[in-house]
Amino acid sequence: MQGTHDDDIVESDVELEISDLIEAEKDPPQKMGNPLIEVTDENKKAAQISKAKANEAISDGKFSEAIDYLTEAIMLNPMSAIMYANRASVFIKLKKPSAAIRDGNAALQINPDSAKGHKARGIALAMLGSWEDAVDDLHVAAKLDFDEEIDSTLKKVETNAKRMKEHRIKYDRLREEKKLREIDQKKKKREDAESASVLKDGEVIRIRSASELEKKLNAASKIGRLTILCFTAPSCGPLSVISTLATQYPKAVFLKVDIEEVKEATGEWDITMVPCFSFVKNGKEVDKVVGVDKTSLEKKIAQYS
Q1: Is the pLDDT of residue 14 over 60?
Q2: Are both 117 and 254 inside the same structural domain?
Q3: Which residue, among 41, 38, 59, 37, has the nearest Cα to 49 in the 3D structure?
Q4: Secondary structure (3-state) at 173
Q5: I need a labelling partner for 287 at 20 to 30 A (CA). Which of 4, 32, 147, 189 fits?
Q6: Residues 6+ apart with CB under 8 A from 225
Q7: Are 283 and 268 in contact (CB under 8 A)?
Q8: Is residue 177 domain-resident?
């Protein structure tokens, strides 16, 4: 079996026994009976005569002739599941599995418990390499009316069916895992976009409350941004260096926190002097600089970005 490719999932080949496989025939569909016609006793008798002639032709190895007689029988009695099942078995002898499958379907539509209908369709499916469907039909046929041909065919196709099922289950699982990963990636991308929307590249964000500070830190952490907390007070002046650094490093997040406005920050971040710069990565403080030293601040930003 040829491997298939599904984005980053490449299906490997399956080792199968395929020596008996044939290609589906390209013949036009065979004649099928009209289930709406009234079937008289005369029709039934005539159908049995045609069936007997078909059996004689089969015994003589004249399979095409047998098909003609069985077709006559089907036209006379289109509600006979056994006629369709018999014709299906002859199509198998002629190596016409598609026709056999059509007749098997017709037989089972009339009588779902037709052992011969399941058997013929199962053998035909196996001829085309539809291993799992073939095994399903043949198991039903064996339960209804076991015979040696069913048993021997099952032995040939069960191994392939098992391998195909294991292969299908494996790659169904891989595709499902891939689908879940894609969902997670889209969710993360959406969350990252939402997080990024509350941050401003190249700008200094003024923090006015502890809850706002927490929100911004969480947003920066979700998208892996380095955050510089600039703790200041009115006495520190404008600190223009912060704006310069924010422009210079647009992917770093600069949060300006006035400790007189956000009083909780002093104790939480152990601020004893201002201006003070805390470097936060993934929600944790990784470094701290006290005082305004642009060179030192730049080195820290480069180190943790």
Answers
A1: no
A2: no
A3: 41
A4: helix
A5: 189
A6: 199, 251, 252, 253
A7: no
A8: no
